[in-house]
diguanylate cyclase (Pelomonas dachongensis), 398 residues
Amino acid sequence: MDFLDIPTVLKASALFNGMAALAWLTLAQLLRIAPRAGRLMAAAHLARVVSQGCGDCMAGWPLPLRQALSEFALLACVLLLLLAVRRMLRSRQRPRDIAWIGGVGGVALGAGLISGVALAPPLVSAAAVAALGSMAVREMWRGIGDRLSRPVAIGITLPFAALALMALVHGAELLLVPGWEARIREDQLPSAARAVLWFVVTAAITLSLIALMIWRLIMRIQHLMHRDPLTLALNRRAFAQALADAQAQLQRGRGFALVMMDIDHFKQVNDQHGHPAGDAALQHCVRVWQAGLRDVDRLGRLGGEEFCALLPLAVPDDLAAPAAVAERLRASLAAQPLDWQGTALRLTASFGVALPAVGDGQGEVGMARADAELYRAKADGRNRVCVATHLDGRTAPP
Ligand SMILES: Nc1nc2c(ncn2[C@@H]2O[C@H](COP(=O)(O)OP(=O)(O)OP(=O)(O)O)[C@@H](O)[C@H]2O)c(=O)[nH]1
């Protein structure tokens, strides 16, 4: 690479990392987009600048000081990067493992620098970067592997795999290729090709994190579009879409049931305890019901205190299964009063269960039948489940 000299590459890399840190800070502080992950990424980029000797602004500094700063900054950079990945993926994993690797790596680095064995610090750094890089690959894959298309997930994960691999290869060459110790002692710069490769990997990692952030934003927007803001159940429009999709599946033999539910005497909660208590009651009911439903079930808020659950069925015509689910939901709500400012508010709800009709594009027939059963449950005294008596919803609506 005759057209590129190493100091130029290092300066370009320092400039890129400085600007990337500024961009992440702007996103985090001014726009409040992924603020914690953004701050961690900004710190990681600044650590990267230090690890590369800030372009060549440390040129006049004593070699041991430069080496110590560079190795510790590289370790810090990769630690911060992994923390940022976890924040971006909203991982609940505690950072204890990262703290351990950071602590052990830091002590080993310190010992290596003090020992005067020239190969020790870069070897420790390479091992730590390889370990942290592979952790990032594993976590990235766990977080997005089955939520994004395969090529996109591979593309986003690849730079972290490249980081781990390059650190491994560097560790191996330190051990196996003669002459490295002398090069480190004489403070020889890496080749231009090597410097460019590291620069490209750093830039690719930044792009991966940006892609992750955009994906998170899209997920957030979709969440806001599809969810009722108070209870986080599906909103009416999203539920209608889920129902239309389920109706389409019904043609292919995949059955489902509708469970319409309505909180009993909800107006009294508002009237006696105030609107905030009513809001808390709605949230409480959804919490209790969601806990009793499976991941494949969809719970939607149709409006006010009326909800509907769509339950995919293993056996298409089996009304007994959704009836049992509705009974369980009824019983669990009745058994778990809401604690409202020290007062136990006993809440109950009425349920109507029905099967959908084939060929009913938007599912209106099934909804009407479940609604009729709900009406019956209210009329029969509330806090009960009523199930459509005519089981064959496919051919003859009642
Ligand atoms: N706090 C709160 N109240 C709401 C919300 N949406 C609707 N409501 C109230 O829900 C109440 C519904 O009352 P009704 O339709 O009379 O039903 P109910 O009192 O539950 O009586 P039954 O259904 O017959 O048992 C009304 O007072 C609405 O103002 C909301 O988002 N928050």
